[in-house]
Design goal:
This protein has helices at 2-26, 31-49, 60-86, 89-98, 101-109, 117-133, 149-154, 157-180, 187-209, 215-239, 244-267, 273-289. By secondary structure, the chain is an all-alpha fold. The chain has one domain.
C-alpha cells in the first residue's frame, strides 16, 4: 500500500512537470532558462532536505553516476522542450516515456535480470510504436536543402524526440545503478549531484550568452522544479523496492495516460488514426514488459 501511494504521487507530479513545460512554452518562456531554474529549484530542495534525509551519504561512485545523469537529463529535457514546440505534446511525452526500454534492456543484458517471452516481445514493439507515432514537423524553414546539420536537427521533431528518448533512457540506467552498486544510502545524494551538474552546465551557458531568465521563466521553472524534486524523492524509494523490469514499465503507463488526457482536455490536441494505433501499441509494449514470470 505504501509503494502504491508513492507511485500515485510520483506519477502525478512527474506528469505535472510536462504540463508545466507546455504551458510555459506557450507563454514564450525560453527552454534553457526554464530548465536552468527548474534544476536550480531541485538543487535547493535537496540541499535543504539533506540535513533531514537518512539516505544522503556521499560516495564517489554516486558522484560519478550523478554527473553522468546530469549530462543525460540536460540533453534529454532540452530536446523534449524543443520537440513540444514542433509536435503533439501527448505523442512527444509518450516517446519520452518509451525510453523505459533502455533501462529495461540494461536490466536484462547488463544486470542479469531474466526476462519472459512477453517482456522480450514488448521490447521489440517499442521501436515499431515510435515509427507509427512519428509526427510531421512544422515547416520553420522554407529552404530545407540549405539547412545546416544543427538546423536540421533543431527543426526535426523525430530527431529531437529520439535524442530525448536516448538520454532519458540513460538517466534511467543511472537510477538503476544506484541499486545495482549498493548505493541506496546515497540515493538523495545522487539526485542532488545530477541536478547540480545539469544546473551548473546550463548556468555557464546562460552567463556566456547573457540571456538571463525572466519572471515567467522563474515562475514556471520553480513550479516544475518542485514537481520533479518531490517525484524524484519517491522514485528512488520505489526503485530500490522492486525489479527494474517491473518498476520502469508500470511507472510510465500512468504518465502517458495522464498527459494524453490533459493534452486533449486542456489544449484540444488531436491525433490521427495512425498515431492512435501507435499510442495503443506503445501502451501494449509497456504492459508486455511488465508481465511477471
Amino acid at each position: 500500500m505504501k509503494i502504491f501511494f508513492f507511485f500515485v504521487i510520483a506519477v502525478g507530479l512527474g506528469s505535472g512537470s510536462g504540463l508545466i513545460y507546455k504551458t510555459a512554452l506557450q507563454t514564450k518562456c525560453r527552454s534553457l532558462a526554464l530548465f536552468t531554474v527548474e534544476r536550480g529549484t531541485v538543487v535547493f530542495l535537496f540541499s535543504f532536505l539533506s540535513l533531514k534525509l537518512s539516505d544522503f551519504q556521499p560516495q564517489i561512485n554516486a558522484f560519478w553516476v550523478g554527473l553522468a545523469g546530469g549530462i543525460a537529463i540536460m540533453l534529454a529535457r532540452l530536446s523534449l522542450l524543443r520537440a513540444f514546440t514542433l509536435g503533439s505534446t501527448s505523442l512527444s511525452w509518450t516517446i519520452h516515456n518509451l525510453s523505459v526500454a533502455i533501462p529495461i534492456s540494461a536490466s536484462i543484458f547488463l544486470f542479469g535480470e531474466d526476462p519472459t517471452r512477453w517482456q522480450v516481445a514488448g521490447l521489440v514493439t517499442v521501436p515499431l510504436s515510435i515509427m507509427v507515432i512519428r509526427e510531421k514537423t512544422k515547416n520553420l524553414y522554407t529552404d530545407k536543402k540549405n539547412l545546416t546539420f544543427k538546423e536540421a536537427i533543431r527543426t526535426s521533431w523525430l530527431s529531437l524526440i529520439l535524442i530525448c528518448f536516448l538520454f532519458e533512457g540513460c538517466l534511467g540506467i543511472c537510477f538503476k545503478l544506484i541499486k545495482e552498486w549498493g548505493l541506496q544510502n546515497s540515493g538523495n545524494f545522487f539526485i542532488l549531484i545530477y541536478n547540480l551538474a545539469a544546473f551548473l552546465i546550463c548556468l555557464i551557458v546562460i552567463l556566456q550568452s547573457k540571456q538571463f531568465p525572466t519572471k515567467k521563466d522563474f515562475f514556471y521553472g520553480t513550479a516544475s522544479g518542485i514537481c520533479i524534486g518531490v517525484s524524484s524523492y519517491f522514485w528512488v524509494r520505489i526503485i530500490v523496492s522492486m525489479p527494474g523490469i517491473i518498476f520502469f514499465p508500470i511507472a510510465t503507463i500512468g504518465g502517458i495516460l495522464v498527459m494524453t488526457l490533459c493534452s486533449y482536455l486542456i489544449w484540444n490536441e488531436k491525433i490521427n488514426r495512425r498515431q492512435k494505433w501507435g499510442l495503443i501499441l506503445a501502451l501494449i509494449s509497456i504492459l508486455l514488459v511488465s508481465i511477471p514470470r
